[in-house]
Amino acid sequence: ATPTALLVGTGRGAQLGILIKGPQVLESTRRVDTIVLDKTGTVTTGRMTVVATVAIAGLDEVELLRFAGAAESGSEHPIAKSIVTGARDRVGALPDPESFASADGLGVQAVVDGRAVVVGRPRWLIEQWGIAFPPELEEALAASENRGETPVAVAWDGRARGILAVADTVKDTSTEAIVEFRRLGLTPVLLTGDNETVARRVGAVIGIDDVRAGVLPAEKAEVIRALQAEGRVVAMVGDGVNDAVALATADLGIAMGTGTDVAIEASDLTLIRSDLVAAADAIRLSRRTLATIK
Ligand code: ADP
Ligand code: MG
């Protein structure tokens, strides 16, 4: 009887838009009491747009976008894609970078027209690259964070050149999913590499007060382990390369169908529609299936 019940569970799962790696997965969902959610691309659409461009005095915004867009053209990150699109809209064709490297959860560095360009998290530019921001950029940075946007800093040849602010939107199903998680007895936690202000704002919109922001990709798994060390059984939902280790570390890893292959491979479940409500459905379904077996 057991195998049949498990097959029913996985078949129904497929109908609900959930791919289950194997019947053994159902067992791990039973004791889950905490659900950790990545922000960008999981709770939000991840379709970002450049909403503000601020260049230092004397620099043309088009020039700022041209260097930033070219530097980001080698990156798959949703922020990078939005900057490339925003730059092409304003500049037209972008030059190909002569070299390119990306730092997970931080930003990119590239050589564009012979200039060493760095684009990424403002704190990374300050701490790693020794970039100083003039007061007008400091103000632009703070203003954009206060508006709930993600500011991205741009520098070349050792000097800050400007700020690009990007923003995305919370998926309309995310709030409903949080209500469902709580009904299932799960405590939601929001986990992100993004800044605290943006993260708290998204948390407030969807109803999560446990917000862990500014977490580097390598540290995401540590957050999962720390929760497990408290005796919690943890499900994690994510989409990015930066979530893969955390997804594998969690007791139940759930990937967004729109996510990267690495995230999907590291997970036990994949949500085809990339809708968090399906994660709640998956957990409810597994529990019911297990109850049928018993
Ligand atoms: P999340 O955990 O919400 O999915 P990430 O870990 O992917 O976010 O990114 C964390 C932060 O790192 C971003 O908010 C951004 O500030 C910075 N960042 C990462 N990649 C890039 C990039 N290619 N260009 C600019 N900024 C980036
Ligand atoms: Mg993400």
UniProtKB/TrEMBL annotation:
From the entire protein, which fragment is shown? 399 to 692 of 753
**What is the protein name for this chain?**
Cation-transporting P-type ATPase B
Lineage: superkingdom: Bacteria
* Native organism: Cryobacterium algoritolerans
User: Where in the cell is the protein located?
Assistant: Cell membrane
Q: Which family does it belong to?
A: Belongs to the cation transport ATPase (P-type) (TC 3.A.3) family. Type IB subfamily.
